[in-house]
Amino acid sequence: MSLINDFMSLIYQRLCPCCKGTLLLHETHICTACEVGLPKSSNHLDGNSELIRVFAGRVPLIKAYSLYRYQKSGKVQRLLHAIKYKGQKETAEYLGFLFATYLLSSDTLSGMDGIIPVPLHRRRLKMRGYNQSEWFARGLATGSGIPLFTNMLERNVATSTQTRKKKYQRWENVEGVFRLPDPALLCNKHVLLVDDVITTGATIEAAWLALKEASGLSLSVASIAFAGKETI
Fold first, then answer.
1. What is the C-alpha separation between 220 and 190, in angstroms, rounded?
2. Which of 93, 110, 200, 205 is the most exposed place for a label (fewest CB within 10 A)?
3. Interacting residues of 42 by C-beta distance below 8 A, sequence separation 6+
4. Rounded CA gap, 44 and 78, in Å?
5. What pTM was computed for the model?
6. Given CA atoms 8, 11, 16, 17 in this order, what sign does their dihedral have?
7. Are 148 and 100 in contact (CB under 8 A)?
8. CA atoms of 133 and 217, how far apart (whole Å)
9. CB 192 within 8 A of CB 116
10. In 3-state terms, what secondary structure has residue 79?
11. Backbone region of residue 225 per phi and psi (left: phi > 0; alpha: psi in -120 to 50; beta: other values)
12. Tell me: the pLDDT tens digits for 197-210?
């Protein structure tokens, strides 16, 4: 029966977003070879990681995690493109669940009170149909048991895409775009802010400017991928 099912999967092809190879029946979102071989980050194991240092003097982070290392023209870039622009939101959720299992195994999620995805502006959300960061956050929440907060942080200014912007332009592009409707709800909470990819950290910094209105709030961040200095 397994051979028949795998044969049928060749007829009705489902492709791995990383390598474009055909997914077999037992492979849900990413082929086994890519899931094992994608360049994983280990920054959640290092308190002075490169990712933490990106925010030094800008955002007082408790912890910072990313699942993969971003590489231009690499498989992680293709994976993020499929998630963001090709409707593969369930892949983001799968990666969130997968990442939660890694983080739980090293006890790095202890003390978290909630998970907040970086929100899209309502116009962008209507156009795309989903928020890829929210789907990644869903997987993290399901895998960890930490509550998911989707309405705590709002994006009230629609910004243009960050993809082709220089470092200083990214900071200018997100300045003042977030707001916290009810800061009292997050007072003295430790929240995990989730984005799909972190490059200069401008979006996270802009979100922090809104989140810090909640008295006593502690912040950690997580992302599917992190672009090191060589890829910014």
1. 7
2. 110
3. none
4. 23
5. 0.86
6. negative
7. no
8. 21
9. yes
10. helix
11. beta
12. 998 898 999 999 99
